[in-house]
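Board notes (copied after class):
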Amino acid sequence: MKMGYGERDITPDYSIEMVGFYRADNLSKGILDKLYVQCALFDFNNEYSCIIAIDSIGFTTEDSDYLRNIIGKNLKINKDRVMLCFSHTHSAPNNGIERSYFDFICLKTLQAVNEALNNMIPVKASWGNFEGNIGENRRNNSALDKRIGILKISTFDSDNIKLILLRVTAHANILNSDNYFISSDYFGSVRKFLKEKYDCDVILTQGASGNIRPLYRQKNTDFLETHSYEYSLTQANKNIPSLEAKELINKTVQEIYTGIDKIIYSLIPQKINRLSMFSEIKRFYSDVPSIERAEEILIEAKEKAGIDGSAWLKEIKKLNNEKINKQYTDIEIQYFILNNGCICGVPEEIMCEMALGVVEKTNNNQIYLGGYTNGCSGYFPTCEEFLKGGYEVVWSYLIYYIYHGRVSSLTKESGSILVNTIVSQLKNLHIKKSLN
């Protein structure tokens, strides 16, 4: 197998509309650290597979497919062999509104792909993971996926590390709604630190962190999460990132570095005898609430999260008038399988219990299910979390329904269906626990 790596800077050099927080003013005020698009391009048996990591909260699935098709055309492969992994940083531009910026990302991504194409070398690989305390469950739930997954790519002849690909599970929003500076959050800081330590390229991908926030958070984070709109009306000019936030990012960096340094050199590179990347489509459903229930939700969201859902309510009324009581979403589940390890993902904010469920049912802790893959639609709760309601299950849709293609969360049994679908696929492929 051969692999090549390429990257490009995608930091805007002008004030731009940001996304990630429900604020009155979302224009950026400066740059804290750069944003990047990265490409790891694999050539196995003369067929390409491509992993792209982008510092963005996430594209719509339509925009993601547009970019994947461009990359696929360039490499002469189908888009299901191109995986987009979004860091889900909450301090990045809103490419859904800033369309010239989206075009800029597409251009830079193709440049990164071509760079990778031009530096392909023979490689070996090994999987591993360790427990890292970087997240906490924000829904009063004890579930956590503490695994920091490692895919270590080494040169075939010398075993020198060429690339470290990490899977982490914690929202990239240590910088909260009082920050107006463009930033890759802790993702960029981890990459920079590890690149200097190990003299190799480093990619981070986001796990099943729909209900996992950063462990190291500002003291006023809880206030900001529920009052960001009102707060920004009076604080928009007091936007210099706090020293506390920078220190918290550094704590996350050190937590990851401490864990990886204990095992990185013990992971023995192996010859690649299996690499495949493919997708399957699964249809899921969501219910359209009645007008009476929608009006109740409107009041709840305003009182408990300061959300104005009047536009959402108009959409509910329109759907009810058209007698539409269900919506459906065809979700792509994509798999990247290398030897007996697997990175798989969906374009949703899935909760960590789903990743843990796949590990338990396959007895393979080197299978990493994540969200934010080939897009970022709505939150995707487990049955237990669905029944609790709250921001992730209900209120967030009052703001972001225009991007998700549905007005409410997927039905309560959807999480189990997703887990069982992935487990069945992997068992059919005879994915067994790796020796690493």
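Comment from the instructor: The longest helix spans residues 243-263. The mean pLDDT is 92.
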